[in-house]
Amino acid sequence: MTRADALPTARGPVSAAVLEVLAGTRSAADLPSEPGLDPYGEDLQLALYVLYELHYHGFAGVDPELEWEPDLLRLRRSLETTFLTALQAEVPAGDDVDAEVEALLVEQVGGDGPSYRLARDGELWQLREYVIHRSIYHLKEADPQAWVIPRIDGQAKASLVTVEHDEFGAGRGERVHAQVFADMMAALDLDPRYHGYLEAAPAEALAPVNLMSLCGLHRQWRGASVGQFALIEVTSSPGSARLVKGMQRLGLGEDAQAFYAEHVEADAVHEQLVRRGLLADLVAREPELAADVVFGIRALTLLEDRLGDHLVRSWDADSSSLRA
Question: Does the pLDDT value for residue 85 go beyond 80?
């Protein structure tokens, strides 16, 4: 999988300052504070995404020493606080992990989210936009949750690693799910490069990935990270089935269907590993993490719903959901 490694265009004063520091045209000591930023807005979400990317592949020409630059980390912490405070204000508290997962298993009848739309009557341009939005996560699929591995123990660790092993191709590089997603993008005549569509992705597409990175990078949020992982694995299979149905209706070949077709079967198996191994053992070992697991599920659901609403509103207006 190749990369589009250029720094993106700023979306406000804070992301502009961060990008200037990374480009070497501004001192990190001159970074601004971020009072009054919209926690879900373009400026904050792009700034956070770029700062987190320093811990993933990074960007071409950026000094790798900046990954641990104290002033950048200080600003990142401030942005994280703004983001988390907003989520905690919107997400109702709870600590019943079993009930939360059971609710996820109830399939919505007559849903109107993007996957339902695409299965029922979505057009090819809408499918391609959906895939572009999803590329922000799926081209680094399962990477944010890999940070949790050294932070949990026992059966929870074993079950998480078992699922991650499948996500990373089960020993076969060409089967790494990020690569399979890139292959699907190529089959849809899309740019399959990592960050090929970072400029086009709105804040709604960046926010779910930023939450995964935040919780993965902070040990104190390991329970929330596990909750996010559980949400993805438990809900992926039926959503993937709807997308395969939509692709078949549009007459797309197996090369385009392969990514979601694989997730129909694989994530049905992963659901059991996550429920009976990962979640059950983690909460038994560290019952104080139950509330964080529920928060992780509900916070990521909120952000995914915001993205889905953005797509559906745009499509209802017969307009693009992308920034460019």
Answer: yes
Phi, psi of 94 (to 5 degrees): -175, 160
- Of 137, 313, 116, 309, residue with least CA distance to 231: 137
Per the listing, tokens 């400026």 go with 43
Cα–Cα distance measured from residue 268 to residue 270, given in angstroms and rounded to the nearest whole number = 5
Measured distance CA(206)–CA(136) in Å, rounded: 7
Position of tokens 């590089």?
Answer: 173
Q: How confident is the model at residue 301 (pLDDT cuts 50, 70, 90)?
A: very high
Q: Which residues of 194-227 are buried (b: 16+ CB within 10 A; e: fewer)?
A: bbbbbebbbbbbbbbbbbbbbbbebeebbbbbbb
CB 137 within 8 A of CB 206: no
DSSP 3: B
Please state, in angstroms and rounded to a whole number, the distance separating the CA atoms of residues 263 and 237.
Answer: 6
Q: Helix (H, G, I), strand (E, B), or coil: what is residue 202?
A: coil
Residue 236 structure tokens: 């992926």
> Mean pLDDT across the stretch 204-217?
98
pLDDT at residue 266 is higher than 70: no
Q: 65: burial class by Cβ within 10 Å (0-12, 13-18, 19+)?
A: exposed
- Percentage of residues in the chain with pLDDT exceeding 70? 99
